[in-house]
Design goal:
It is a single chain. By secondary structure, the protein is α+β, with helices and mostly antiparallel strands. It has helices at 19-27, 73-79, 116-122, 127-130, 143-156, and strands at residues 2-7, 13-18, 31-43, 48-57, 93-96, 111-114. Strand 3 and strand 4 form a beta hairpin. The protein is elongated, with a radius of gyration of 19 Å. 24% of the residues are buried.
Length: 169
């Protein structure tokens, strides 16, 4: 589970890491805890530190500029918050708006989260051909949006207010 947000030394979001990796970075003095779980602490023989939600690297890491997040099935489900684009129920699959057989590809703007029954019902047709309008339009998330969306709604609760809200679906 990747539930700890990593900020660059300049406070810009870089990535999410596992709790174990975050603790290792703090213990190696490569990062400091910026936000933590209010009541949880990690204790060992010589260590007592808060469970980190957000850590900040002490040295600036230069990252090549990325215009958009890389496409993935998991990314589409996270972007759409596991909500079916056709009926609004829980989505478990990814549907191509323009089917691959009609020239559609694996892109952010051509894929939406879908429940299995709606995915089968739409089959090899466009939403217009199937009479199934989209409840929301697909969009291309920024890398920061994708990272913050991956933390989920419950993950946002413990984060600082100054972090940007991801774009709405």
């Amino acid at each position: 589970m990747r539930d700890t947000l990593v900020l660059n030394a300049s406070f810009e979001p870089l990535s999410t890491v596992s709790l174990n990796r975050a603790v290792v970075l703090v213990l190696q003095d490569k990062a400091v805890v910026e936000a933590s779980h209010p009541e949880l602490r990690m204790r060992a023989a010589a260590v007592d530190l808060p469970v980190p939600r957000v850590i900040r690297l002490l040295r600036f890491v230069r990252v090549p500029f990325r215009r958009q997040a890389p496409w993935s099935r998991r990314g589409v489900l996270v972007r759409d918050r596991h909500k079916c684009a056709y009926c609004g129920r829980r989505a478990t699959t990814v549907d191509h708006v323009v089917p691959k057989s009609q020239g559609g590809g694996d892109t952010w703007l051509n894929t939406v989260a879908s429940c299995a029954p709606d995915n089968h019902r739409k089959a090899n047709r466009t939403p217009e051909e199937a009479g199934m309008p989209l409840l929301f339009e697909p969009y291309v998330p920024t890398p920061t949006d994708a990272m913050l969306l991956a933390l989920g709604a419950e993950g946002r609760a413990g984060l600082p207010e100054w972090l940007p809200e991801p774009a709405a679906a």
